[in-house]
Design goal:
With 140 residues, the chain is mainly alpha-helical. 69% of the residues lie in helices and 3% in strands. The protein contains 4 helices and 2 strands; from the N terminus they run H-E-E-H-H-H. The chain has a two-stranded antiparallel sheet with strand order 1-2. Helix 2 packs across helix 4 and helix 3 crosses helix 4. The N and C termini lie far apart (94 Å). This is Swarming motility protein SwrB.
């Protein structure tokens, strides 16, 4: 009877040791995961810091440009031209063809008024039926 109790005791101790080993592996994995997450968080923080620094530098340059009052047109971000009087002069259109082309939207609306179906209009303009239907709906 004693030998039976000893065998059972050893089996239970073995199962306990096996369970402890499994728990230790899970704890190590969790710790490794936490370390990786901390590294990723630090990288993201560094990235945001660098972006913020770049934005601050760009703001300083823009502020300096705006306060100087004389920036060349190459430095501006839009194609706005300044005249000698400091007023606004819109950019000139390209003088390539000389003919104005109607927009897709206006062509679709003209075809609708002429009695073209959605399928015919889409085929003629090489557009999708859904796109043509959306243009119809947006016009209403």
């Amino acid at each position: 009877m004693t030998s039976f109790v000893l065998v059972i005791s050893f089996l239970i101790d073995g199962l306990i040791l096996f369970g402890l080993m499994i728990m230790m592996k899970k704890i190590r994995r969790t710790e490794e995961l936490e370390l990786r997450q901390e590294k990723v968080a630090a990288e993201i923080e560094d990235l945001f810091s660098s972006y913020l620094y770049e934005i601050k530098e760009e703001n300083k340059r823009m502020e300096a440009w705006a306060s100087s009052g004389s920036g060349s047109t190459e430095e501006t971000m839009s194609p706005v031209k300044e005249t000698n009087g400091g007023g606004y002069e819109p950019p000139l259109p390209d003088e390539g063809t000389g003919e104005e082309q109607p927009s897709i939207h206006s062509m679709v609306m003209n075809m609708k008024q002429d009695g073209w179906s959605v399928e015919e209009t889409a085929k003629a303009l090489n557009k999708g039926k859904t796109e043509v239907e959306l243009m119809y709906k947006f016009n209403q």
